[in-house]
Write a structure and sequence with these properties.
The complex is a heterodimer of chains A (352) and B (534). Helices cover 78% and strands 0% of the residues of chain A. Chain A has 352 residues and is mainly alpha-helical. Chain B has 6 helices and 38 strands. The chains are: A mainly alpha (352), B mainly beta (534).
Amino acid sequence: MIRALFILYLAWQAASPQAAEHMQAGLAAEKDRRFEVAIKEFDQATKLEPSLVDGFIRLGQAYMENADYGAAIAPLKHALEMSPDSLPAHQLLGYSLLSQGYASEAIPHLALLPDKTTLGIAQMQAGQLAEAVTNLRAALAAHPNDPDVLYYLGRASGLLAKQSIDTLLASYPDSARAHQAMAENYFVLRRMPDAEKEYREALKLRPGLPEAHLALGEVYAGAFQWPKAEEQFRIQAKLQPGNAEAAYRLGQALLEQGKVREARAELTRADRLMPDMPETLYSLGKAASLDGDPSAAEKAWTKLLSIEKQTSLAAQAHFGLAGIYRKQGKAAEAKQEMQAFESLQNPAGAHK
Amino acid sequence: MLLLLGASATHPVFDVVSPHGLNFILQNSPTPQKYLIETMPGGVGLLDYNNDGRLDIFFVNGGHVSSPMGIPENFSRHDPRYWNRLYRQNKDGSFTDVTEQAGLSKAGDGNYGMGVAVGDYDNDGYPDLYVTNYGKNILYHNNGDGTFTDVTAKAGVAAGGWSVSAGFFDYDNDGKLDLFVTRYMEWDTKHSKICGGNYHTYCPPEEFPATTSILYHNNGDGTFTDVSKSSGIAAKKGRGLGVAFADYDGDGFTDVFVANDGMQQYLFHNNGDGTFSEVGLEAGAALSQDGRRLSGMGVVFQDYDNDGRPDVIVTELPREIYGVYHNDGAGSFSYRSLETGLGLLSSGSSGWGVGLEDFDNDGWKDLFVAQGHVLDNVEQIDPSLHYLEPPLLAMNHEGRFEKVDSGDTMPWAARGAAFGDLNNDGWQDVVMTTLGGHPQVLLNRGGKAHWLVITLRGTRSNRDGFGARVQVNGQTRFATSAGSYLSANDKRLHFGLGTAEKAKVEISWPSGIHQVLNEVHADQFLEVREPEKP
């Protein structure tokens, strides 16, 4: 970009003295953020020197800086007619078109830029969702954790998912997958009876539909119907004995019903399938504690705390350990754990 | 065998009845302003105010709420629609409204009603009433002739602010009932807020500052002294909604459990020297098993697993599950909501009034909870939750609770609940208040199991015997009329005896006197007088 502007700078050095004077005045005004003056000066320069590519680019840029993106389009297009390879002109025109809602027109210009962020946004707006996701992923790699890029990548991914589901629903409305998709939608909306109905329909059409029993179990769990949740998680765990989440969810459902020993067995299995998951470790400790095995609870919670130190799960683990130590008469250890718990509950400056 | 003796799993435990003459409607007056008081009333008390042997019923009414409220606040309590009501029970089980003749019609226009405590604070043999309000509380002295006198000013117990549940107990074992009053928060209609996004809702408690509970010491001359500060009670600010009493550590002094909303629960240990220490956290009775704060509302402090030690059950909002704090002894509690099965029964419900009563007389205390969400539009926010809910009745099978058909299957926005034997048949009944509606009267259908009902008559101890530990055939009850939410229970102690036709009764009076009665016949109402000497 800098190199391109430098070449342009050299180019307008060769313009007529009057045009060059207006260019200088325009640049000075632009520097002082007097964009309307800058626009007039660049406009004069281009009228005096109609072949001055840089003049048209500067004029377009001044319009953009003055938030008049629509007016920027014509001079930038003109600049590109004269200099089709001008990267600054492509960039500015791409931005202007995109800001005016002409995403499809902007794409060829933005595609020439090394940074793929704006291209991804334009593609998303133009409905080229798969391409948008690809380019926004590349942009995220170049700008890790950039909130704008994260937002647009999330949005584009969501729209892509929706597009795929919309196609599914339109093309195969009575398929098991369509019912599954509808169920997921209802679940997000917390319309549990509708979600349950759709999952049931999906499973009727295709028994053993991958993940459907797990998801239906989640529906029941969300409605506090733990025995039904247990039933679904159990089916999923049987269908997929290697699925750690199914084992974990089943363990949780059992725990909620006070079936401590069974819960412990499932949570142990979940921990074996996918070791060191903090959620599993916490629940495993809880089940062990309820089962009257404080040493196993202590082991699980201590392991959790070696993985997570500042989260709510860590706070819960400290609280659980305090309870164990208190019962064991280890007052100092209990106090230490309670202090750790309270410090996570009430971080400094966050008193109610 | 149990099915033959008491309620079966297939038959409802209660008949929902509408006794003639009981025409009370709880006027909570919901407004678009979403004043928090509107969703919180109202209490019910079961007492035999005229000592005719039949339980009478006192209801606390809310009041008229304008939208918006003017200043000074006026809840139109002079309008009979908004009176508190006392109903005298007649011989035939019908009721007569005696509010006016009893002198209870003046609730105070500046008061929005909340709850009631019942106790004989002057040991004259007649139960007195203490009515809590948003505003000023009122102490009604029972004159013994069917009338009451407002003695608040003389007694010095008006409190102020927003009082909720209250209870009489004798914290210093001097033979005179003292008074504990929970207060919810620092709130008034002028500083009310509306919460919620797309849907306006009542605000969560965290939106308003916490406040202190009040402890009044009974001076024995008709006056009380506010000892909140000197006793240490005022050292802890909370958002108290429920209160219950029991001596959890067996040191002979009655302790206090306060159910706080949206924060840790408070267990005030009675130090025996007129002071209390809040020990909820170190005792393991302050938070959930996961260390989470709870929306404590109602509370009961009785022994659910027949190990002789009082446990605590706290009712809460959905997703928190009702808290069961099992008393492990040595001043320590463990959270047992999941093991007792209560987690399963309560994770989607909102609980208020609560009682541990042996409804099937099998020797195990069962659980009844008045239910209904705080928010009258909760379904719009979360369709899996419900503003109106039927009550929960869970039978106790050796420490594990299992839901059964109460007989009251209609959903209500229930709040207060009081427990007692309304028809003197030896089977515990329930009266439950509902926002904007008539009270629910649940008469126990009964069965064949045996029972024993004991009335304590303190002599050295307070006359009601509150604070006594009574053991009957391996069961334990702590004498109190307090507990639940906003409500006062029948002070008589009810025990289910199962197949036993005789009982051994052991009473540890607050005075320290230990009394044993052997070979007590079942199926009787027994008055036990405290020996004058140890």
